[in-house]
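Risk mitigation, structural track. In case the binding assays with MNI fail to produce interpretable data, a predicted complex structure has been prepared as a fallback.
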Amino acid sequence: KRLPRRLRLPVLLAALVLVAGTAASATRIEPGPPRYLTDDRGRALFLHGFNTSGSAKDDPEHLPWITEDAVQREYEETGTNFVRFLIQWQALEPEQGAYDEEYLDAVAERVGWYADRGYHVLLDMHQDLYGRYTSPEEHSGNGAPEWATHTDGFPVARQDMWELVYLEPGTVRAFDNFWNTTGEHPELMESYAAALRHVAERFADEPAVIGYDLMNEPFGGSLQGPAFEAGPLADLYRISIARIREADQDAWLFVEGQAVGVNWGLPSALPHLDDPRDGEPRIVYAPHAYPLPMDLGEPYAGSAKERIDASIEQWSGSVRTTAERLEAPIVLGEFGLDMSGEGATDYVARMLDETDRMAAGRAYWSNDHDGWGPWKDESLAPGPLAETMNRPYPRVVAGHPVEIDFDSEAPALTVRFTEKEGVSGPTELYLPDTVFPDGYDLSVESAGSPAEPDASEWDGELRILSVETASAGPGTEHTVTVTPE
Ligand SMILES: CN(C)c1ccc(C(=O)NC[C@H]2N[C@H](CO)[C@@H](O)[C@@H]2O)cc1
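Fallback model:
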C-alpha cells in the first residue's frame, strides 16, 4: 500500500480535488453519551474482530481463505467476538434476478463456524473499483456483476496504484450509471437493494448474523462529497433499509459515508436515516480509518507520529459529529496497516484505545496472509498483530456504558456503566492469559462505594469473566475493575 514517492503528490492532489466538495471544518464535539448496539437482553454489545477477508476479492468462488480451524485459532490467539465477513453482489446475483443459492450455502457454512464460537457476523456487501468488470486483471476489483456494469465504452487503464483505477473514465461511468447520475439506469439501485433483501431473507433466523454493511467504501463517480452522500448514496441506503426490513426487522444496518476524504478524517455529510422497524432504530455508523500521512507512506513513529495522532483526533471528532447526526452507534469497519512497518503495533493499540474511548466496535483490516494480518504464515502461528488484538475488552456491559478503559501499563480493565431498566444478565469481560496469566482480582463500586457483585463466574476455556452487579436502581453508576492477580 506504500505509495511510490513520485506518486504521492499527484495522488494527494487528485484525491483532494475529488473531495473538494466534502471539505468542511471538522468541529470536534465533546464526547456525547455513547450510543451502542444491544444484545437480546438489552446489554451494550462491544464488537472486536477482523475483516474476513481481502482474499475473497480474487477467489474464483468469491469466498475468504478462512477454515473452521482458522476461526478456532483466531479465538484462541486473539479472543475476538466479531467478524466483518465480505460478500459480493457478483457472486450473489451472477445473472440478473437469479440468486446463487450455492454461494449463500457456502457463506452460511462459514457463518456457522463463527456462530459455534459465539461470534457476531456482519455481512459486508463489499465492493472495490465497482467490480471485476471495471478493473484490469491485476487489480482486485470486486462487487458488481457484469450485467450491472455499464462503462459505456469508456476506458479503464491499468494503474501502478490500484486506487487510481477509481478515477478511470470507465470506472467513473460505471458508478455514474449505478447512482443514475447519468439518468440512464434507474433500475440498478433497486436491483442492489433487492439482492440485500435476499441475503436478509436467508439469514433472518441466524442469530449470529448481527447485521449488514450496506456498501463497502461507497464512491460517487463524478458526484462527490455532500452532493453524493446526501444524494444518491442516502437514497440507496433508504431503499436498502426498506427492502431489508421487509425480511428482517431486527438486523443492525451498517452505513458508511464515502471513502474518499472520510477515511482520512474529513466529516461525512451522510444525513440521518430513518429505520421503519418497530422499536429503537438499528442503524450503525460504520466508518473506516486510514490516516492520510500513513496512506502516503509515513510510519506511526518518529516525527510523523504526532501528525498521525492529530489526524486520528480529527477523524474521531468527525466520526462523533456524523454519528450524532445519525443518532447511531459507531463500529469502525476497517483500520489496518502493513505490520512490518515501524510502530505498527503501537498504531493498532492506539486505534483500540480510541475506539474504547468512543464506546465503538472495531474490525481490523484484515486477517489475510499479506503482511497486514495476524498470522506469521499459513501455519497460523500468531504474529505481533495477534498479540496486540489479544487484549482485555468488555464483550457485553449490563447497562449504559460510560467508560471503557484498558490501561496496559497498570495493567487494568475498567468498565463504568449506569444501571438501566430492561437490561438483564452479567457484564462479560474477555481477559487474555497474556495479561492475566495467574488469574485476576475483581473490584466493584456501586454509586461510588465498594460493593460486592451479586455473582461472578470465570470460564477458563473462553477466558470470559461474567460479573453480575447488584441492582441499586436505574441510573446508579457501577464500576467494574479487573487487575492481574
Ligand atoms: C479513490 N478511492 C475511491 C479510494 C482510494 C483508496 C481507498 C482505500 O485505500 N481504502 C482502504 C482499504 N479499504 C479496502 C477494502 O474495503 C482495502 O482494499 C483498502 O486498503 C478506497 C477508495
